[in-house]
Every structure is written in structure tokens, then in C-alpha cells.
């Protein structure tokens, strides 16, 4: 385990409203989808894990663990990480029809070119 992705757990409808507000304020949005009904919002009260970038060839994985009182998102290494190497995980964004594609800049040889 490397770090926990901290934030506030929101219902999906609330997360959608908050994302619109953040975007209207031209803020960077840091949200992590747990499942179809819940999102962790790290935009205002998240930890440093929110800054971990996406890669198509990641050295970490994000796992959602269910506890008695809710969820935890745990970032864990899936291979040896060299000193100074950037941590990254695959965001596994869904492709949503009508939404613009997000270009990937991970520079991995196996890059899929798009994050979603
Ligand atoms: Zn990529």
C-alpha cells in the first residue's frame, strides 16, 4: 500500500452537481468513482493522492475496499517503483457517448491515446 485516496463520499447526483459548480469556477476537479452510486470528491478536502496521474502502463493500482462504515480507496504498487519514479495508476474511465475524449499523455509504449 502506498497511500489512501481521501475525500468526501458523495451520492452520484450530488457529485454531478458539484462537478458542474467546480467547472463553472474553473477549478481542477478531483473525483474518484467508487461505483454507479458513489463518488469520492477530493477537490476541496482531499489528500495528495488526488494528484497521482493516469498511465496506460501504471506502477500502481487503485482498489476500493468496503469497510463497515463505508469505503476506502487504496493505492498500491503493482511492481517495483524506482527512486524518483512518478506514481501512476490506470483511471479506467468509462467511455460515455457524447462526452469529449480526453487525450492521454502518459508516453507509455502501450498508450491507448485516450484516457476515456
Ligand atoms: Zn496513455
Walk across the major sheet and give the strand order. 1-7-6
State the helicity in percent bands.
Answer: 10-25%
Low-confidence stretches: none
Fraction in beta strands: 25-35%
- How far the N terminus sits from the C terminus, by CA atoms, comes to 26 Å
The biggest sheet, with number of strands, parallel, antiparallel or mixed sense and barrel status, is: 3 strands, antiparallel
* Highest CATH level, the class: Mainly Beta
- CATH topology type: Beta-clip-like
Overall 3D shape = globular
Structure classification: mainly beta
Main location: nucleus
Subcellular location: Nucleus
Keywords: Chromatin regulator, Metal-binding, Methyltransferase, Nucleus, Repeat, S-adenosyl-L-methionine, Transcription, Transcription regulation, Transferase, Zinc, Zinc-finger
InterPro entries: Post-SET_dom (IPR003616), SET_dom (IPR001214), SET_dom_sf (IPR046341)
